[in-house]
Amino acid sequence: MSEAGMAMDEPARLEVDRLLDDRGTRIIVCCGSGGVGKTTTAAALGVRAAERGRKAVVLTIDPARRLAQSMGIDSLDNTPRKVAGVGGDGGRRAGDGGNGDGGSDGDGRAPGELHAMMLDMKRTFDEIVEGHTDRERAEAILANPFYQSLSAGFAGTQEYMAMEKLGQLRARDDWDLIIVDTPPSRSALDFLDAPKRLGSFLDGKFIRVLMAPAKVGGRAGMKFLNVGMSLMTGTLSKLMGASLLKDVQTFVAAMDTMFGGFRTRADATFRLLQAPGTAFLVVAAPEPDALREAAYFVERLAAEQMPLAGLVLNRVHGSDADQLSAERALAAAENLEEGGIVDQESGKAGLRDDDRSTPDTGLDVGADTDAGTDADVDEITAGLLRLHAERMQVIAREQRTRDRFTSLHPEVAVAEVAALPGDVHDLAGLRAIGERLAAGVPAGA
């Protein structure tokens, strides 16, 4: 048995197409540590869902903007934009010639649509202000320096606004599937913590402390204000001097009627994430750090009673020649390099012996040329064998890493996506990723 075949019992296979086809699934959240392919996975799921009849929207928070490039959109912003060439808009459909005329595809499914957008954190915050206050108060808040700093860079604001935007998309009910690409945080858990954290910040003791100076006044007021200032971190430290006190008081006074709404929406969004119509996909690479964080996230989702669909394991290596182990490949390479692959007395080795040419024929020069050619072939073959050995060692290492995760969480279904030779830059590449996701096992490459 090869190294690649010495794995533990295979985990349950994540059936991605069944998940996408289930009309009861309204939200898919792709989460995981940074650099594991969350954005590509979310985009590929969106393309495949649309071409299987869903009206889908992909919400990405990826600052690299690779999603827009892959989907052929010049730029993504805070407004969903339709992706041309997918689903009922010229996608790969049978039954209507792919002309997007509204007919069903070959298996009776109605044509789908795909929209995509990129979260604009500050604009989302501005929309909340504009939607929940009168025009005069909204203008005062938007112009406030403290608000501008808070909305642009306060710790957790991006994650919170991603949840706000998710709630807005779900409330509009324009799409039957929302796919969320979570922020590239240092810890994937920030995505779950942010709504509660920012909601508590805007609706807790902190705000009451900041309101105290205006209500109490005098020395007592300044004492309360000093306590409030000691609690400020991050963005607030960038604002100095007397203007800070005035800006904060003005901000708090203008936002007073909105604070309860932040907590209410944060709680509602958290309940939405726990609802049966939501499915979490933990995305990871077959590397120890990524799978350790994936295991931690699986445990956190279980603790929060959030529905986990499974694990997407990206960039998995495979081989069509896995019957040749690394050890055997290395041994064969060494034999070729040392000239000892077979009996030197006869057979193929005899073809490499100097005495295969006879002086009587006068072909000594030709024999030397043949010997040189054979040596080149041997060198190339040995190099290929060593490359194969390295590949098999990588496969074995990835399987051991995956097996450690599986032993901790045998209940988690897994879809393995084969590593590609390059990055995905177009719809064809996203379709290829979608097909590999649906297959759920790495293709030999």
Helix proportion range: 40-55%
Number of helices: 17
Reading the helices and strands in chain order gives: HEHEHEEHHHHEHHHHHEHEHHHEH
User: So what's the oligomer here?
Assistant: single chain
Low-confidence stretches: 1-7, 93-103, 214-222, 224-241, 341-367
Mean pLDDT: 75
Strand content: 5-15%
State the major sheet: 8 strands, mixed
Radius of gyration, taken over Cα atoms and rounded to an integer in Å: 30 Å
User: Distance between termini?
Assistant: 19 Å
Strand order of the largest sheet: 3-4-2-5-1-6-7-8
Q: Which class best fits the helix and strand makeup?
A: alpha/beta
Shape: elongated
Number of E-type strands:
8
List the helices and strands and how they pair.
Elements: H1 16-21, E1 27-31, H2 38-50, E2 55-60, H3 66-70, E3 81-82, E4 113-118, H4 121-132, H5 135-143, H6 145-153, H7 157-172, E5 177-181, H8 190-202, H9 205-216, H10 218-231, H11 242-255, H12 259-274, E6 278-284, H13 288-303, E7 308-316, H14 326-338, H15 348-352, H16 364-408, E8 414-418, H17 427-439
Parallel strand pairs: 1-5, 1-6, 2-4, 2-5, 6-7, 7-8
Antiparallel strand pairs: 3-4
Structure summary:
This protein is of the alpha/beta class and 445 residues long. It is built from 17 helices and eight strands.
What features would you describe in this structure?
- By secondary structure, the protein is of the alpha/beta class.
- Helices cover 52% and strands 10% of the residues.
- It is built from 17 helices and 8 strands.
- It has an 8-stranded mixed beta sheet with strand order 3-4-2-5-1-6-7-8, sandwiched between helices.
- Helix 7 (157-172) crosses helix 12 (259-274).
- The longest helix is centred in the C-terminal third of the chain and has 45 residues, at 364-408.
